[in-house]
Amino acid sequence: MELIRRACAADGCEIFLCEPEGGDLVLTACGGPDRDAMMERSRFEAGIGYPGIVGASGQPLFTRSLPRDRRFLRRRVTERGIHSYVCVPLPGPNGPVGCIGVAWRDPSAPIDRAADFLCQAAAPISTAVRAGLAAARELVDQTIDAAGESPEARRRAFLDVLVRASGARAATLALYGDPPDGGATVLSTAPVPSVCLQAVDGRQRCSPLASGHGVRLDICRDTWPDRCRFLPATTLAPCCLPLRVRSSLRGVVVLDCESLAGTPPTRDLVGLLSMARAGAARLLPATEEPVLGSTWSSTPVLEVRCFGPFEIRLLGQAVPVEAFTRRKALALLKLLILRAGNPVSRDALAERLWPGVDGKAGANRLHGVLHALRTAIEPFRDERRWIYVCNIGELYYFNMESPHWTDLYAFRRHAATAAQAARSGQHAEALRHFESAVAMYRGDLFEDEPYAGWCELERTELRHRYLEMVARLAELWVAEHEPDRAVDTLRRGLLVDPLREDLHQALIKALASLGRRREALAQYQTCERVLRTELGVDPLPETRRLERLIARPLPENAP
């Protein structure tokens, strides 16, 4: 933000982000000598005011004479002599995700040039914002998964991750019961839960929370709405986050924060709302059948399997290859999935799909392939509303916020959670996630395109990660005194890479520990034969020492 302010030679700069459900634009950051005046108003309703009108129209707004109407700007800003203002939306797949504005005291400020600059900068800024929000949601998913199956442990893990993200002193979770009594289950990390009557009694819904808005208050109680003054006296600066499922308020999280003096009170609100939304999807599953409409649940409408043969399912039904009228449509989808939501330029995609093609021909070909892909998998193609394969201008990406499940992303999530659990000594949790990750590896990445050079690096990295997890999983099974399960795991790993001598060693040891010495000796012989045939080398000294240990004469009736 500060770099942009200097590039535009502006006196002030501010960034607003849109609430994920409530729709209001809230002030996230501001800079310059008049930042305290900019914080006079930190929220604009969607479609009302300046910059709310930008969020509604999606078009840049700029003026050389600021209106005095307080709907459009804060009074103290105009009193400071700010004369000109440019506001540009940050584009997203389903409308603007926020906006960035710069202001000048000088009436002759170059606002036309600044508007052009901001329009060019808006797409990468939007990408960074959405990537950050996606990472925050991913953190919530991983933390809840790592907490195990206990509902209370999962809820407490959810509170802990919100406390860490917000820097709050404590957090309180209230989950509403079913009508007609509407009571609430309360869990808090503080001795005195930070809840008001509307957070405890589900029949008395807090109107802003029910509408999907976040409520962030500063330390001065005199400025709080009447409904919030029933919070305990120990609560300093509450931040209330709604937990909604399909537009229904099912609970609330109240974070007890420190004062945010000198920063916008709503600085972290959008990120916390995104995390709360992810937590609600995990802790409060919808009871109704999923509905595919303008809003959707986390049910994976689109399922994609990248390990082994590439497979696509829509609403549980396999999508045949014949549904893609262009041969390169599947390759385009694979390319975008590998980027995990990071945009790829049109020229880069064309070069990957048709190496050496000139710009104009590549753009034309990509247009046809993109149309074929969207026709096959997009549910709202007749409305030209794209859920999965989206673009911002000439930048294309796979929408990570869409209702989908992909084995590649699930594999990476389980692998990361397992590694974290193993480091923390949570062996049972590590076993569960290692098993889940290993089970997803049905074969190499995009096995049906063995000679696709554009995915070779990712394919090699994923195969290596899989084999490392096989070795680690086998170690954990041995530590849990279940070497037979280690044997099964290691054999699966050697099917993927029979040249991994460390897996041969571990398998020989596991078989020997079970008393299956003949099998252990046969495994050594297999290892020796494979290494000599494929690599022209002998087994390592430690492998040969294992062979000598198990090759002692055996009784006739030995196993």
Can you describe what's shown?
The chain has 559 residues and is α+β, with helices and mostly antiparallel strands. Among the domains are: 2-138, Beta-Lactamase, CATH 3.30.450; 148-283, Beta-Lactamase (2-Layer Sandwich), CATH 3.30.450; 302-402, Arc Repressor Mutant, subunit A (Orthogonal Bundle). Helices cover 43% and strands 16% of the residues. The protein is built from 19 helices and 18 strands. A hairpin with a 5-residue loop joins strand 12 (302-305) and strand 13. Helix 6 (151-166) packs antiparallel against helix 9 (269-283), helix 15 packs antiparallel against helix 16 and helix 16 (483-496) runs antiparallel to helix 17 (501-513). The chain starts with a helix and ends in a 9-residue tail after the last helix. Mean pLDDT is 82; it is low at 53-58, 68-72 and 287-300.
